[in-house]
């Protein structure tokens, strides 16, 4: 009697690899297809079962929060520059992330509604508030601009991203929005 080789259930030993595979797949799939992509698509891409997904991430929002925590880490790194250019770096990366993955913004909106303690918007506001004054002091940004104005501009960029029907028109439309605003 021959013994067949094949997949072996590694159980708890596979947990770290499974979680990593889910996060990688979710980041890519959500960036391509949006926040509301069927979770079964992410499961297939990650090569895990639906049960494994739910064991690590009980809800779509839990998954998205884990996926997009990297975005906040990148934004915080841009804001950490002590010079006046930190605001421009932060703004540029925020716009890039929004264009690359509108799912990031969709997740923030859901989190704001579903998680009373969610601080995503406050985190962004704090990053902008920490960098904007230095840019204003250097003269690179209008002195009258407020952190709330910057987040309004960011929501405008998001609006362009999610309402533009032809993907090839997104980048030019975002650049037109940026040209209208007194931001770097």
Describe the protein's architecture and organization.
The protein is mostly helical and 184 residues long. It contains nine helices and no strands. It has two domains: 11-58, Arc Repressor Mutant, subunit A (Orthogonal Bundle); 60-180, Tetracycline Repressor, domain 2 (Orthogonal Bundle). Helix content is 70%, strand content 0%. Helix 1 (15-33) packs across helix 4 (60-79), helix 4 crosses helix 6 and helix 4 (60-79) packs parallel to helix 7. The N and C termini lie far apart (71 Å). The mean pLDDT is 85. One of its GO terms (molecular function) is transcription cis-regulatory region binding.
Averaged pLDDT, please?
85
Helix tally equals 9
Coarse shape: globular
What would you report as the Rg, rounded to the nearest angstrom? 20 Å
**Structural class of the helix and strand makeup?**
mainly alpha
Find the CATH topology of the largest domain.
Tetracycline Repressor, domain 2
Beta-strand percentage range: under 5%
Major sheet size, sense and barrel closure = none
Number of strands: 0
State the low-pLDDT regions, or none: none
What is the CATH class of the largest domain?
Answer: Mainly Alpha
Number of individual domains: 2
How far apart the termini lie comes to 71 Å
The portion of residues assigned to helices is over 70%
Helix/strand layout:
Elements lengths: L14 H19 L5 H8 L3 H7 L3 H20 L6 H15 L1 H13 L5 H19 L8 H17 L6 H11 L4
